[in-house]
Amino acid sequence: MYNIYFGKRSISLIGYNEVEVKNPNSVILYADNTFNYDIVLNLLQNSPSINDIRIYLKEGSDLEAAFGQLCSCFCEINAGGGLVRGCKGDYLFIYRYDVWDLPKGVQERDEEISQTALREVKEECGIEELELKEKICTTHHCYWREGKFMLKHTHWFQMQYTGKYLPVPQEEEDITRAKWVSPNKIEEHVRGTYPSIQEVLKRSNLLDY
Predict the structure, then answer these.
(1) How many helices (H) and strands (E) does the chain have?
(2) Residue 25 has pLDDT above 90, yes or no
(3) What is the end-to-end Cα distance of the chain in Å, rounded?
(4) Do the beta carbons of residue 133 and residue 83 sit within 8 Å?
(5) d(CA 117, CA 5)
(6) CB-based contacts of 70: which residues, under 8 Å, 6+ apart?
(7) Which helix (H) or strand (E) holds 11?
(8) What pTM was estimated for this model as a whole?
């Protein structure tokens, strides 16, 4: 199963052997190898009241190939981000555009995606002493810019901060706060944040709703 987020709306691409979830508030589509995925983008653009699109693959359809077809409808970019744990067990969050978020940014030419994640955390939070740990997951979200849909694939990594300095928000990137949050306070900080950020936290066993 793959999820693509558009703000707080979502597209779910679901393999034929997965259980179908009945939801009266979802638009349900069924796709085979000849399915035209431009239909999905048209729904996003022209039907703002639709918040949930579920595409169930028919038997014989390959999930990875179908996801590639869906992605090809967008202009794709790669990004890297980090879930940073401090020496006291707290986690690093940034505040941008009126929501709590995690540091991330776009991959530069000839840069390994793990190095993108480290660089972006350092730049957005003003810290240096970072150890790269295991990869958490890749999230996918799209947005409308300059007359086209962009699709950002963000590769998320666990990181450990070994320093002792307070984070400094990168104001030129519209980040107004950067702070350490204890695990028992994470849920109240991210109730209104992006679904992709909630997915990262769920995959890291820091959020259970």
Answers:
(1) 5, 11
(2) no
(3) 18
(4) no
(5) 20
(6) 2, 4, 11, 13, 37, 40, 55
(7) strand 9-14
(8) 0.92
